[in-house]
Amino acid sequence: MGGVATITKDLENEIRRYLFGQLPEADEERLELRLLSDPAFVEEFDTVVDEVTDQYVRKELETGEQKGFEKSYLTTAEGQQKVRFTSELLERAAAERGAPVVKPIPHPGFFERLGAFWQVQSLRLAAIAAAVTMIAGGGYLALRPAMNYAPLALSISTATRAQGSAPAKVKLESGVPGVEVNLAIPEQAKGAKDYRVKLVSGDESEQDLPIEKRDDQTVTIKIPASSLSPGQYAIKMFRLTPDGSFTRIQGSYFFNVE
Amino acid sequence: MQRLHNTSFDPQNRGTGKKLTPPKEPFDELLQWLDPDREKAGQRYEVIRAGLIRIFVSKGVSDAEYYTDEAIDRVIKRLPEIQAGYVGDPARYFHGVARNIVMEAGRRREVPTATEVLPQGLQPEPPRSDTSECLTKCLQELPPDKQEFILDYHLYQGHDKVVHHREMANELSISEGALRTRAHHLRVNLEKCVLRCIDHHGKNKNTLQSHSN
Predict the structure, then answer these.
(1) pLDDT digits (tens, 9 = 90+) for A86-121
(2) Which chain B residues are closer than 8 Å to A123 by Cβ?
(3) Are A35 and B51 in contact (CB under 8 A)?
(4) Is A171 at the interface with chain B, CB within 8 A?
(5) Contacts of A160 in chain B (CB under 8 A)
């Protein structure tokens, strides 16, 4: 078990090349002998197989790697079963954590069919979500009373900052005490007994923020102007699980301060 | 054909991985050859078996458990001739036998692969809905924190995944390697549960069909 924890990049690469049929014969023999004699290595091997299968399903492998994997490992019933399981698992993880995925597109080829249902279209939906958020945020800004907290309404996004479209913007005018942010609780995280919120600044520093109020749909926080300077911010939300610990809700609420 | 390390060879048992009580002599001799300490020999046998399965699957030989049994049988049969004079790690001999089987399979190519003709004894590919239903069921059987963990772990891809795993490891105060091990063990158990469930589904469907016929 410790073997998996200490697996080196070289070893991992060697196993990967073996799975793609790219390892010279002598190295292949050495690796196979180790498979027959070292239980920790067997576990390391399985971990790499999981990793490669994930990448295959997500179409992250290079063409040569993909072809090699299909030619050998994936011609077996065992390999195909693993791909089916992995596809379901990854799809489920995305669906339950808010990242939208497209269902499989019917296609004559087995592997094409499997690959197709990992066509994640998070960028498109993230753009729509961001646009809605910006309109909502803009509406609040236009109607806000003077010298009150600047209001901002945000939805969670599982896209990274780089992937997603422009995040909501807020301008802090002189005399404004800060920003009041309404965070829409994602569907899968509703109903928790408690939530926690952290503000992450552009320099990756994190700050816990007290929750002002919450209802079934939203959590509201106030960020004092003193904590905000122009730049990019992300908010992480955590929910209380039945075992009493807080678990991160996947994704972040992004916004920029101008 | 008699499986020397099984009570009897039953084609229906091909690839099921069922561990049957072996008859004494040939299998005991194999264990003795692997290590005079019976417990250590048993452990070595399990490692060899696990390794053979992985070699066969990696080389595109379908029904790897069946061919693993075949490899072990061949070694057992040759044991009386080689035992006395053999020098070196027995794993090397198993490796040679496994290579021969892979080559034979390659020559047949023809090696009944899952994408061509299903090997006798293998069930046809289960419908996707079975895998999906079974995954739901098996996830529900996990404690909530483990459910959260396994889904969180598999959320991102590429560089985001690396960053996300680092964050998860920090939050859990464990190393990234330990995180990976934890995820692997959970995933192995989840996959086993899904396979059992699919198998159970298949049997139920067959029973229903035979009742309706």
Answers:
(1) 999 999 988 887 554 333 333 334 454 454 444 444
(2) none
(3) yes
(4) no
(5) 160
End-to-end CA distance of chain A, in Å? 50
Please return the burial class of B159, using the count of CB atoms within 10 Å of its CB with bins 0-12, 13-18 and 19+.
Answer: exposed
What phi and psi values does residue A206 have, to the nearest 5 degrees?
-120, 150
Q: Which structure tokens are listed for A192? A: 């928790």
SS3 A152: strand
Q: What is the pTM of this model?
A: 0.60
* A248 and chain B in contact, CB less than 8 A: yes
pLDDT lower than 50: segments of chain B: 1, 6-23, 111-124
Of B142, B68, B138, B61, the residue nearest B107 (C-alpha):
B61
B69 CB neighbour count, 10 Å cutoff: 23
Could you tell me which residues are beta bridge partners of residue A170?
A257
Q: What radius of gyration do chain A's Cα atoms show?
A: 24
Kindly report the nearest CA distance between residue B25 and chain A, in angstroms. 23
Q: How many CB atoms lie within 10 A of CB A256?
A: 16
- How far from the centroid of its chain's Cα atoms is residue B79's Cα? 25
Q: Which residues contact B69 (CB under 8 A, 6 or more apart)?
A: B3, B5, B6, B14
**Side by side, which strands form the sheet with A150-154?**
A150-154, A178-184, A218-224, A211-214
How much is the ipTM here?
A: 0.80
User: What is the tens place of the pLDDT at every residue in A3-56?
Assistant: 444 568 889 999 999 999 999 999 999 999 999 999 999 999 999 999 999 999
d(CA A189, CA A164): 21
How many residues appear in chain A? Answer: 258
